[in-house]
Predict the 3D structure of the following.
Amino acid sequence: MIYAYAKLTVNNPDALAQYRDVADAALGKHGGKVESAVRDFTVLDGAPDKPGVAALLSFPDRQSAIAWSTDPELADVHALRRSAGASDILLMG
């Protein structure tokens, strides 16, 4: 199992709502899923730039995560997420 951290700064809530409708199926295509998604944060240390939404994604392995992010059939799904605002995703491992 490998995890990815997704950080979104939402400027277009309607696009985010549309993305949520298709995100689970897109992740599932490569064995991924959302483990947790939150909008409220408590800073434990430092002064991080708090996102509008943060999510922890899981994938069976590194190759599955990369396949999800580069799958040409999911280009529209990734574009929809990006149209909601700034989107950063870090693979942790």
Summary: Helices lie at 13-28, 62-70, 75-83. The CA atoms of residues 12 and 84 lie 5 Å apart. Residues 13-28 form the longest helix (16 residues). The radius of gyration is 13 Å.
